[in-house]
Amino acid sequence: MKTIDLAQHKLDVEQILELARQGPVLLLTAEGEEFCVAEADVFETEVEALRNSRAFQQFLDERSKDKRTFPLEELEKEWEKADGK
């Protein structure tokens, strides 16, 4: 899976789709969000490949070590700010 940091590389939708035609793409936003883009017909195959990927499983293990929690009220306030309410 190719990873693209959108804070460093400005890509338009066509460029992202072209990359996704070559294989799944993980997009990282400047805000820390992550999105996966893949062809729909290969998604199930990719899910199975990721299940069997030692590197991906290690990545998930590392991420699961982060035990930070956020109160729901705090998240709702952030969403309201982002929506301009």
Query: How many structural domains can be distinguished in the coordinates?
Result: 1
Instruction: Tell me the major beta sheet.
Output: 3 strands, mixed
Strand content: 5-15%
Taking Cα atoms only, what radius of gyration do you get, to the nearest Å? 16 Å
Report mean pLDDT, rounded to a whole number.
88
| Total beta strand runs | 3
Distance between the termini: 37 Å
Task: Identify the overall geometry.
Answer: globular
Biggest sheet: strand arrangement: 1-2-3
Instruction: Identify the quaternary structure here.
Output: single chain
* Number of distinct helices: 4
Structural class comes to alpha+beta
Features:
85 residues; 4 helices; 3 strands; alpha+beta; single chain
Report on this model:
By secondary structure, the chain is of the alpha+beta class. The chain has one domain. 49% of the residues lie in helices and 14% in strands. It has helices spanning 13-22, 43-51, 54-64, 72-83, and strands at 2-5, 25-28, 34-37. It has a 3-stranded mixed sheet, covered by helices on one side. Strand 2 (25-28) and strand 3 form a beta hairpin. The protein is globular, with a radius of gyration of 16 Å. The mean pLDDT is 88.
Short account of what is shown:
This protein has helices at 13-22, 43-51, 54-64, 72-83, and strands spanning 2-5, 25-28, 34-37. The protein has 85 residues and is of the alpha+beta class.
